[in-house]
Amino acid sequence: MSRRGVLLLALSLACIASPGWAQSQSSPPATQAIKAEDTPISRWLMRLHDAARQQTYVGTFVVTAGDTMSSSRIWHVCDGQQQMERVEALTGVARTTFRRNNQVVTFLPERRLVISETRESFGLFPNLLNRADSSIARFYGLKVLGRERVAGLVSDVVQLVPVDTLRFGYRVWTERETGVVVKLQTLDATQGVLEQAAFSELQLGEPVSMARLAALMDNTEGFKVLKPELVKTTAAQEGWLFNGQVAGFQPMACQKRVSAAQSGASANTLQWVFSDGLASVSLFIENFDAARHRDMVPHESLAIGATHMLTRRLGSWWITAVGEVPSTTLAIFVQGLERNK
Prior knowledge:
By secondary structure, the chain is α+β, with helices and mostly antiparallel strands. It has helices at 5-11, 21-24, 41-54, 136-139, 210-218, 290-293, 327-336, and strands at residues 57-65, 68-79, 82-89, 96-100, 103-108, 113-118, 140-150, 153-162, 169-175, 181-187, 193-204, 224-226, 229-232, 240-242, 250-258, 268-275, 280-287, 301-304, 307-314, 317-323, 337-339. It has 2 domains: 5-224, outer membrane lipoprotein receptor (LolB), chain A (Clam); 228-339, Phosphorylase Kinase, domain 1, CATH 3.30.200. 15% of the residues lie in helices and 44% in strands. A 12-stranded mixed sheet has the order 7-8-9-10-11-1-2-3-4-5-6-12, with helices on both faces. A 7-stranded antiparallel sheet has the order 13-15-16-17-20-19-18, covered by helices on one side. It is globular, with a radius of gyration of 20 Å. It starts with a helix and ends with a strand.
């Protein structure tokens, strides 16, 4: 799986619907500057979430991780609870992705291929934030750093500081008037920047036609359309359990990807998602395939920016853990996964 932690961290702000938290909590107005003494971390995070849902914008988004850089053009529009956006890759393989709520359609023009999927939104703001017992504040602190300009916009700067070494920290820039994220960094234990994402230019309030985006999203003429089937399930139902302990991380979802092009057990890949409310980890479980996995070394750790990957062979199974967490955290996940039938 290819996931850039910081990119999803920012894009998820525009993709996850939240119940009207503003009516149940006394949040500061959008024009009020952030103050540490009256802004608990959960309220602050939900303010960012709500700001992204309410804003229409167009911008160029740049992600840097190590010596790699990618950029995308983003069009985002919202109409009540209906969220829609278009993300066009400006670097690498030509790719345009549309998201309408939980429907995601990716166009690969060089292959004349369209991949249409239904995805639940995970990333910075999963459902943990909607629970009264959200434990995010137990594992992250909020530190106000000041104010800076990003893409010509005055922005408040805060840092989310982890209380342990199981997770990374974040430095976040939000446009002062709207609360929209304009820049963020993922930080290691020494405050080094693992990955950075920022708008190089951003027009807030730009007129974006939802009807126009919908027409582009639905026009698949001349393309082969693939619709991978994702089946909701549970780890226990599939014969798996997790005996490890990673403070703060809770199971969020479990789904099985069924390939129409294959048959039998090898056609299914199980994805089990855990999150602490900010960072997420996915465990991918599939049948071991000697031909396909022969060049992969079990327990080998790979990293691109903040995203780490760790693999393990367990009998006739192949496990891949991917997440925006330290490799030591992934090791707990892969070692704690057990077959129970």
